[in-house]
């Protein structure tokens, strides 16, 4: 399955060519990929360097990429619309803000300047701004309380399942 990220103005932002769906319900999609071709909006292409588990939820305005590196698990969290899925791909709108979580549990909010520029340029409505502020807080709570994809058991189970399918 492909993953397609868009910007608020409807333009394609980034495409991951292939992700193996490990679990799909009405509310959650969990997938895995490794050495996957990624195409940027400007046509630039690159390949992911490490195995990753991706987590999407219908009720939250973020998705989480768990990357397995030699020194531990890193998380890259995109503040985004809830995902939509069709025959073509898993799709979401990327709202610029990201949180990077390190193996020691420390985390940083990234790209606030980019968010401000795009919010003005693409006229994000006030309602989206409010949702995203709330979702940053929600995501930080998940990180601090090791909830959802940040739970140690989540990583063990889904990394093991992905490895067994490859």
UniProtKB/TrEMBL annotation:
Keyword Magnesium tagged: yes
Pfam families linked to this entry: DUF402
Classification via SUPFAM superfamilies: FomD-like
Record InterPro entries: DUF402 (IPR007295), FomD-like_sf (IPR035930), Ntdp-like (IPR050212), SA1684 (IPR016882)
Residues in DUF402 domain copies: 9-147
UniProt superkingdom: Bacteria
Swiss-Prot/TrEMBL keywords: Hydrolase, Magnesium, Metal-binding
UniProt feature coiled coil, ranges: none
Matching PANTHER family: PTHR39159, UPF0374 PROTEIN YGAC
Protein name: DUF402 domain-containing protein
Protein source organism: Jeotgalicoccus coquinae
